[in-house]
Design goal:
189 residues, alpha+beta, three-stranded mixed beta sheet, 9 helices, globular
Length: 189
């Protein structure tokens, strides 16, 4: 399996707006890559992409999903993800929301110690990480673009990501007060 470094959404006219970065994350679910999967890796490598192998792909996907939920919950709160770009205070709320969602990931059986590099920014001082993200989304074009392409306030995906994460936390009996505080933004039709 592989996931590109990318971002995007559909605009109000149904056109896909996005970007594709030069990196890909690959992994499998508890087995070595098949010959076909190895051939795909070679193909992307020969095309100039940077490949990163993720030993616990399931855990990596879950962390990516809750990070998206944290960001989207705040994007929905302020009107769109694009409005988070450059805003240290809104990005801090997204980080703190994601931090509380780490309990959901752990409850799903993911060993967070295997994902130290992904978890570190979520556990570091939020004011520091939010400031760095605000700077990056203001001045680093790929980071800014990743937020700008998520400006469709009617998109279903952000609400679905938040709803699914909220539902799983409820199922597991995990308190997620920050998601609860913005629940009306993703539960509306």
């Amino acid at each position: 399996m592989g996931i590109p470094g990318a971002g995007g959404s559909f605009d109000g006219n149904g056109a896909l707006c996005g970007q594709l970065l030069s990196s890909l994350v690959f992994g499998t679910l508890g087995r070595p890559p098949s010959r076909r999967e190895q051939a795909v890796r070679r193909l992307f490598s020969e095309a100039g992409f940077t490949l990163r192998e993720q030993p616990d792909f399931r855990g990596w996907v879950w962390l990516h999903f809750v990070t998206d939920a944290g960001l989207h919950s705040q994007g929905l709160r302020v009107g769109s993800l694009s409005k988070l770009a450059g805003s240290a205070s809104n990005l801090r709320e997204a980080l703190l929301t994601t931090r509380e969602l780490l309990s959901v990931v752990a409850a799903r059986g993911i060993d967070l110690r295997q994902h130290r590099s992904s978890v570190f920014p979520l556990r570091a001082p939020s004011w520091l990480v939010a400031g760095a993200l605000a700077w990056a989304t203001s001045f680093y074009p790929p980071a800014r673009r990743a937020f700008q392409v998520h400006s469709n306030t009617e998109a279903h995906e952000p609400r679905a990501i938040c709803f699914d994460t909220w539902t799983e936390a409820k199922r597991l009996g995990i308190a997620i007060p920050r998601m609860e505080a913005v629940r009306s933004s993703f539960l509306r039709n």
